[in-house]
Amino acid sequence: MRLDLKDSRIFSAVRLMSSFRFAGNGLKLAFLEPNMRIHFAAGTIVSAAGLIFSLTRLEWCIIIGLIAGTMALEIVNTAIEKAVDLVTKEYKPLAGMAKDLAAGAVLLYACAAVIIGLIIFIPKL
């Protein structure tokens, strides 16, 4: 009996490598989006500030988590936008709501990240 590589119960190095290749391609696609480049630039600036102000290990963990979380949420937002665009090219209120909700989630998380960043960095000034 031939085993199907798409069967989720089967582990193989080929499937694992394919998964990493697909994920890497997803990251490349994400960096084509202007908002992702903005998040990356902000993360780079915050990381540089972290080096200048000698953050503690815990502070670095928090900052890295915030940067990665914001970028991951932006990728999910982009995926939702692309999926909605695939389904319909015409304006539909529910499609617009789905896109707005996903963008709102990114905005909420980014605002919380800024507040937490200020809590970490302001005492160091």
TrEMBL record:
- Binding of a divalent metal cation occurs at 33, 81
How does the record classify its membrane topology? Multi-pass membrane protein
Localization: Cell membrane
GO CC aspect terms: plasma membrane
Q: Which InterPro entries match?
A: DAGK, DAGK_sf, UDPK
Q: What's noted on cofactor binding?
A: Mn(2+), Zn(2+), Cd(2+) and Co(2+) support activity to lesser extents.
Query: Could you say which residues bind substrate here?
Result: 15, 74
Q: Which family does it belong to?
A: Belongs to the bacterial diacylglycerol kinase family.
Name of the molecule in the record: Diacylglycerol kinase
Q: Which organism is it from?
A: Domibacillus mangrovi
